[in-house]
Amino acid sequence: MNDLPTYVLEREFNAPRELVWKTWTDPKLLPRWYGPNVETIVHRLDLKRGGLWLVEMKWGSNSHYQRIEYTEVKPPERLVWLHSSSDASWNIIPSPMKPDWPRVLLTTVTFEESSGRTKMCLTWVPHEATEAEIACFAAAMDGIGKGWGAGMELLGQLLAELQA
User: Fold this and answer.
1) Cβ atoms of 13 and 20 closer than 8 Å
2) What tens digit of pLDDT does each residue of 17-68 get?
């Protein structure tokens, strides 16, 4: 099945590619923009093929865990990973918020520099998903942009601050 719903997020940042890459790969910078309006805790970040990025998003007494396994790391131009909800022991689980949400999303982020600016493109595609998961993802695509959009606003502010 090649016609999988694909979420595409494109942004251009007024920052050099190496700096934009760093905001996606530095465990001290990631929590400043990833997971807007929650406390983001990076438990582990092994930036290599097969490496894991284990992240917890906390609000109040609630936590949501994500397990990210890198399948390609090509500095400073490309990151590819398998993105999943997990339990507190980092085992992949169905999404606690939407039971039919894809258990795994193939995520690709590319960074292209042009005249000192960086064009970033993120795609999210259900990976080895069931029909129900594909349908759930397709139905949610309009809403996905809200969370990513808020994160991109924070990322833009962080890049401006880092260059000030």
Assistant:
1) yes
2) 999 999 999 999 999 999 888 999 999 999 999 999 999 999 999 999 999 9
In a domain, 89, yes or no: yes
Residue 51: which domain range? 7-163
Task: Say how many domains are in the chain.
Answer: 1
pTM of the model: 0.94
The answer to whether position 1 is within a domain reads: no
Which CATH number fits the domain that encloses residue 102? 3.30.530.20
- CA atoms of 41 and 155, how far apart (whole Å): 16
122 inside domain: yes
Q: Tell me the CB-side half-sphere exposure of residue 8, using CA atoms within 13 A.
A: 6
Instruction: Give the type of residue at 99.
Output: P
Q: How many CA atoms lie within 13 A of 162 on its CB side?
A: 20
Structure tokens at 64: 């949501």
Tally of CB atoms within 10 A around 111: 22
**Vertex 20, ends 18 and 21: CA angle to 5°?**
60
